[in-house]
Amino acid sequence: MAVAATPALAFGPPGWAFFAVVAIGTLVVGGAVISQSSSTTQSKSKTKTKVKDKTCEECLRPWSIRVHAQGTQIGGSSGSTIGVPAIINTRPITIIEGITLSASTYALLTKSQKKNLSTSFQKCNTFILSRSPWGFLGKKSFYGTSRDNNRFDIDSFGITPNFIV
Hints:
The chain has 5 helices and 7 strands. It has helices at residues 12-45, 56-60, 72-75, 95-107, 111-129; strands spanning 50-51, 54-55, 63-70, 81-82, 87-89, 138-143, 151-157.
């Protein structure tokens, strides 16, 4: 489409502006067409094949762990969270990796947040250390001494348990 607008360049600044609008329009339309065709291809490739009562997507799902602090003290609402990015791996997450993730999240807290969440942090680490040899899958929350909404949470996913030796 932009090639057809090339003669407009001979008309000076008004022609240049017209050509720029046509060129940008061509890029936007072309990008939309490419994006649409790639999403169509992706949606077609997600066919689910049954393998022992699990889909192939579930069989290939990686292991992941997220440890985050949550509550009103973190950001003003009970849904406010802070934490380092989750660990995602092609094998189960080890106890050492879990403890490192927990400590890294704790390091992000302010001094007053650390003071109020120290019991939750300790409970979280004790839980991670006591999981071997069975590991853990699922979600678990660790509250401090008061049962307010401030806590440490673990989200553990995979096809076998995490927090192994």
